[in-house]
Specification:
The structure is a homodimer of 560-residue chains.
Chain A: H1 2-9, E1 15-26, E2 31-40, E3 43-48, E4 53-58, E5 63-66, E6 68-73, H2 82-91, E7 94-99, H3 102-120, E8 126-131, H4 149-156, E9 161-167, H5 170-174, H6 178-186, E10 192-194, H7 201-209, E11 214-215, H8 221-229, E12 233-237, H9 245-255, E13 262-265, H10 271-277, H11 280-290, H12 294-301, H13 303-308, E14 325-328, E15 338-341, E16 344-345, E17 381-387, E18 394-400, H14 401-410, E19 413-419, E20 428-434, E21 442-445, E22 454-458, H15 461-473, E23 477-482, E24 485-491, H16 503-519, H17 530-533, E25 543-546, E26 549-552, E27 557-558
Parallel strand pairs in A: 1-4, 1-5, 6-7, 7-8, 8-9, 9-10, 11-12, 12-13, 17-20
Antiparallel strand pairs in A: 1-2, 2-3, 5-14, 14-15, 15-16, 17-18, 19-20, 19-22, 21-22, 21-23, 23-24, 25-26, 26-27
Helix pairs in contact in A: 3-4, 9-11, 11-12
Chain lengths: 560, 560
């Protein structure tokens, strides 16, 4: 093998393909030069002058640029099955994904992570996993699975696993909790992702010295700069909800800072948004529009991410690297690109149906629910979860019994319930939601961060029960019920998180459901399903609901 | 341990020392900011605001800069014992050495390498070894030792070994020689140093794809740039003999190239030169004088080298790194610096006498030599090794028997002999040398690249024999004989390469010997001992002499 590579690099042996007359995007020196690129056995054999090959492609001066790396993403958040997601990423030039299967791990544990790897193992993409470090995310809800240190170690041994996923349990790190230190120690000398929004000063130093390497939560340049200076790699995030590119890159450009330790990521980006503009490609193009030198932006999208994650075989157009690259006319726009993975051109493909070797459906397991489960206990005062337009943070209100009932009557307030859906324990939290806008009917989802129990919102118990049972029948998804009938359902039967539909169909179905939810009153300022899915996440201010009850984030306790 | 670090980083626990009011040289963002640096247990605990410590040092606005890394050096070439060499490097801010003990390995094999590590293991320096890959360097001479793959593997297991040293056998790499590929394979995923002067085009691609990571042989910017583009790390060399800094950095500055993959090294630098100006410090200062941004030059001297050699605990002033740094007033000059290793200030120390646990003297083992061994075979024509002023390359001449004898008579020509000195095999090569200038007497050395046999030059056999026997008696060194008497001798009794004298004494003694050699006629254009030591290296044009005879480098064969 090495002998063949050396012979091909030297031009003595025939290459498989020679790309003649390329402009090589050299991310090592941050410059461009003209050369041929020889490919053999899926690797770049050499860059220079080459003539001997089975196939010669004349690029006539087009660019050859290393393919992009998405340095942090939760594939499940696309609601597409992983192989479908990969196709969308590939079509915009991403051939490497660093994924954190945190969502499915909360539902299905080791088996869920295994499914993600299995489903993508024949895809033309470098699919890497960071082992979820914090499952369950909080002790204030019941998840489907718990990843203890041995489960984490079991996943760490799987092919395609690089290191440890985002360490969200900042307080445990800072208090030097033994279990958390043991997890960190397991992955020492491997990449360990952080998750430390707004952490600053000495506490940030403590978090870094614990051994955490990256952070993708910076929302301001000030925060990003402090994290860079602390020694962290900063992954600039541009997803569908969290969009930090502009704020951070403005600072980078203004201060002409060294970007060696920076890369791009999406965290969560929806399928429709990806299809429209890509992921990392969008970050590159926007950064260049903002004034970044093109080569510097491309470094962040390629070699920097490869270096951060120790992927020595990726990230540049040099001898011995995997032949993953983009061919295009304009490296400031990256439109009409051709994408090569291991030297083969990727035509837009329809992803395979999921591999059912590992059965990951059958994840909705709830105890029979009756009206009495959805009853609000009679109290003097009720805490109200108040949605804020275009935000996932909430406000907190308190109403008397009479006012709450009046609000329910008028339709200002809906009932919201979270049902434990993994082990049929019968846990149900019931509360009141303001600002959602639903006028008549019920809406339910099994996507409910982070434990992914079932959330149902409704104006009457009958439609709520109908929606609950519909999601039980289809084993997870989105559903809308009204006047005793199911209006529409999108099954998400892969762990109750993902659909097995092809991308275009899935995008259309998501649009349908969203439109129908708005038709029955859900406010235009709220995403009917996505915003809803965050109402169960008990770490975001100010008030949430889990299967264990209504939770006050500020006092970090349930409201009796 | 981790718990203590986290507590100290957070400012809850006391640090050992706090350096207040520092200007932190941040090589990650390439910028400077004001902060305190807390140190505990030899590590940087945190950078920010700190108050609790056993000791507080107010830096009053001085800089704290990461200490320097010399990314490639042959310590033996200083002729000081390794611990003495370390003191000289330390005093100019180098706390990390990536060494290639190629010289001593040629004399003493595994034991020699072990000695270098043993002799420095208690020194306040990070002393790393790259395992010599090419011992012996050529088949045209007899070395003291041969490092086969198992010897290499044995060294690879020693503490302090990082990867493989310079792969000088370029033809074997390019012909995909099995033994060489096996060596490279042994060190896959570890740093492998290259040594490929003037290698270019497809052959360079072949050398890179074989798995070689670094090169320090580029002498022009064109060569350095091609190597960078090929994917190699370029170590810019500035030693006593080979000085490539100016040529390369001029190009870097003119083209504003990315320097992420570049570092500085010395290869070979003499003790007197180090004492005068330092090693890496000199590279930084000169680069800045030439127009390099100070932070960029400092990156090359610190974090870049750490990254290239996978030294994750070194290279920056950030929490968790080893507390190796320089405190100074001016980061463009680095004069009057204070050097800290593991948080402790290094006072100029007298290095210990060598550790004799591993006996490395007794390396001069020659068969008894008589006049007849030094006799020139009678031939029609004699090849003459012609020294060129201030160069180590030589010219080739041919003289008739009569002309050669007349030259010897007049003193234009000297006799030169190389004697196998490791295993008393009795091999002696005898030839004629022009341009050395010696008028009366003999000069001998056991430093003779790369096999380090004994070289003796003389105007008469009696003095030559005297010099030979003197070096046998002192077990290696430099000596000068005249009129049947030894004028002066510097014993180099550590492998015949290094002295156990303290640095200042050694520098003085080297000056003495050099002056005395010039006094008895050696040309001012020739370094009496150093230039001589290269006359036995059969890979440098055009003509050399080994213990096996006079060697024509162009035809790569001995001259009969």
């Amino acid at each position: 093998m090495k002998k063949k590579l050396i012979g091909t690099a030297r031009g003595i042996l025939k290459a498989d393909i020679i790309f003649k007359n390329a402009k090589v995007v050299d991310v090592l020196t941050a410059s461009i030069y003209e050369a041929d690129v020889a490919v053999v056995d899926g690797l770049i054999a050499g860059v220079g002058e080459y003539t001997k090959a089975d196939k010669i492609i004349d690029l006539k001066g087009k660019y050859i640029c290393p393919a992009f790396i998405n340095s942090h993403c939760h594939v499940e958040s696309s609601m597409a099955m992983p192989s479908v997601y990969c196709v969308e990423e590939l079509s915009w030039g991403v051939t490497t994904l660093i994924t954190d299967p945190h969502e499915i791990a909360n539902v299905s544990g080791v088996e869920g992570v295994s499914y993600m790897l299995e489903n993508t193992k024949n895809m033309p993409i470098n699919y890497y996993v960071q082992v979820p470090s914090c499952v369950p995310a909080t002790p204030f809800e019941h998840s489907g699975s718990t990843l203890d240190i041995l489960s984490i170690a079991e996943i760490a041994q799987m092919n395609g696993v690089l290191g440890m996923g985002e360490m969200m349990n900042v307080p445990a790190v800072l208090s030097a909790d033994g279990d958390v230190l043991a997890k960190l120690d397991w992955f020492r000398n491997k990449p360990i992702d952080g998750h430390a929004p707004q952490l600053t000063g000495n506490d940030l130093q403590g978090y870094v010295i614990a051994g955490i390497n990256t952070d993708h939560e910076a929302t301001t340049w000030k925060e990003a700069k402090e994290k860079l200076r602390s020694g962290m790699y900063v992954l600039v995030r541009q997803g569908s909800a969290s969009q930090n590119l502009k704020a951070i890159m403005e600072g980078v450009i203004a201060e002409d800072i060294d970007t060696t330790n920076m890369a791009f990521c999406t965290d969560d980006k929806h399928l429709a948004d990806i299809r429209k503009e890509g992921t990392i490609r969008y970050c590159v193009v926007k950064s260049i529009e903002m004034g970044m030198k093109p080569l510097k932006a491309i470094q962040m999208a390629t070699i920097n991410a490869a270096r951060i994650y120790g992927l020595k075989h990726l990230g540049s157009i040099t001898a011995g690297k995997q032949a993953d690259f983009i061919v295009c006319d304009d490296i400031t726009k990256f439109e009409n690109i051709a994408v090569y993975y291991k030297g083969q051109k990727m035509e837009r493909i329809v992803a395979n149906r999921p591999s059912w070797n590992i059965v990951i459906n059958g994840s909705v397991n709830i105890k029979d629910v009756t009206k009495s489960d959805l009853e609000l206990a009679k109290k003097e005062k009720y805490p109200i979860i108040k949605m804020i337009p275009h935000q996932i943070i909430t406000d907190k209100e308190e109403l008397s019994y009479d006012d709450a009932m009046a609000g329910l009557e008028k339709g200002d307030i809906c009932k919201i319930a979270v049902l434990e859906r993994h082990h049929a324990t019968g846990y149900v939290g019931v509360g009141l939601l303001k600002g959602y806008g639903l006028k008549n009917g019920a809406i339910a989802t099994t996507v409910a961060h982070d434990s992914h129990n079932m959330i149902v919102v409704g104006t009457n118990d009958e439609d709520m029960l109908l929606a609950i049972n519909e999601l039980k029948n289809v084993q997870g998804g989105y559903t809308i019920a009204q006047n005793g009938k199911i209006i529409d359902t999108l099954p998400l039967n892969i762990a109750g998180l993902m659909s097995d539909l092809p991308a275009e169909k899935l995008i259309n179905r998501l649009d349908d459901l969203t439109a129908k939810a708005h038709e029955i009153g859900v406010s235009k300022d709220v995403d009917p399903f996505i915003t809803l899915s965050f109402m169960a996440l008990p770490v975001i201010p100010k008030i949430r609901i889990t299967d264990m009850g209504v939770f006050d984030v500020e006092s970090f306790s349930f409201i009796k």
